[in-house]
Amino acid sequence: MPTTLSPPYSPKTLKHPRSLPRSLNYLLKEQRLLFILVGILIGSTFFILQPSLSRLNSSDTHSSIPRLFPVTNRESLSNPFRGVSSYGHGKVSGRVPVGIGRRRLRIVVTGGAGFVGSHLVDKLIARGDDVIVIDNFFTGRKENVAHHFRNPRFELIRHDVVEPILLEVDQIYHLACPASPVHYKFNPTNVMGTLNMLGLAKRIGARFLLTSTSEVYGDPLEHPQKETYWGNVNPIGERSCYDEGKRTAETLAMDYHRGADVEVTDRDIDLYMNCHEMLNLL
Ligand SMILES: O=c1ccn([C@@H]2O[C@H](COP(=O)(O)OP(=O)(O)O[C@H]3OC[C@@H](O)[C@H](O)[C@H]3O)[C@@H](O)[C@H]2O)c(=O)[nH]1
């Protein structure tokens, strides 16, 4: 065999890995480094300024809405969300870059055909969320929400919250409650209804807002009532089933929070007549 023939296979010579000085050299050539630094600077300025600008905008829009009552709420005892970022506008604590808008939420409003509920529904729909109203029309009226009927983001279910219901939502605003003495005497909504809705919140991991009332303090001896005040209550009076019902609902809500990690907040809706405020609570 002739020895001059070249071997059938010659291994490829390995490229030298780029050495550090060569990479630096590449970066420094043609002012590439300068361009990178300017890019980083522009990017960070944008992300730093953007949240402050959007905060400015949102406070502008809020300023036209008068706060009807001082915000002395029942928060410090019962709101485990303090310090937790809220989905609502104006309270967003994280920085959300432009283009990544607020996620559209699916929300249940029980008692959404009532006075307070229907105004809350208007606000939620205007904010861009999907809203399901559950109401048995005990005291509420279909007409209160009729203007949303053609909106695909709105649903109305005739249902008594005293019976369980299964829905997939992110938040539950629980307002269903017989509000006048003639009605609330005969109705276990506050206990059974709240229990069912808390059970739902627990199963699907939804946040829960309970609309309470200053009547839980009974005939208070302190004015205004502080979070730490427990009230002066009459458990056997004419109106007691309303107060006791709401108190039980609060107890249940806190038990579900402590025992099942349900994120709850309960609010004295007498002080929170402004639905705009309520919107930012969950
Ligand atoms: O068992 C019931 C009772 C009542 N409801 C509904 O719940 C709604 C209650 O609305 P109302 O207009 O009577 O009362 P309001 O809107 O004034 O107050 C309501 O929201 C704020 C809460 O603090 C009150 O306790 C609550 O009743 C009605 O639409 C009623 O039909 C139920 O769906 N199920």
From TrEMBL:
EC number: 4.1.1.35
Subcellular compartments: Golgi apparatus membrane; Golgi apparatus, Golgi stack membrane
MF terms (GO), sorted A to Z: UDP-glucuronate decarboxylase activity
InterPro entries xref list: NAD(P)-bd_dom, NAD(P)-bd_dom_sf, UXS-like
Record domain NAD(P)-binding: where: 109-264
GO cellular component: Golgi cisterna membrane; Golgi membrane
Reaction equations catalysed: UDP-alpha-D-glucuronate + H(+) = UDP-alpha-D-xylose + CO2
Protein's membrane topology: Single-pass type II membrane protein
Pathway: Nucleotide-sugar biosynthesis; UDP-alpha-D-xylose biosynthesis; UDP-alpha-D-xylose from UDP-alpha-D-glucuronate: step 1/1
Protein's job: Catalyzes the NAD-dependent decarboxylation of UDP-glucuronic acid to UDP-xylose. Necessary for the biosynthesis of the core tetrasaccharide in glycosaminoglycan biosynthesis.
Family of this protein: Belongs to the NAD(P)-dependent epimerase/dehydratase family. UDP-glucuronic acid decarboxylase subfamily.
Protein name stated in the entry: UDP-glucuronic acid decarboxylase 1
Organism of this sequence: Ilex paraguariensis (yerba mate)
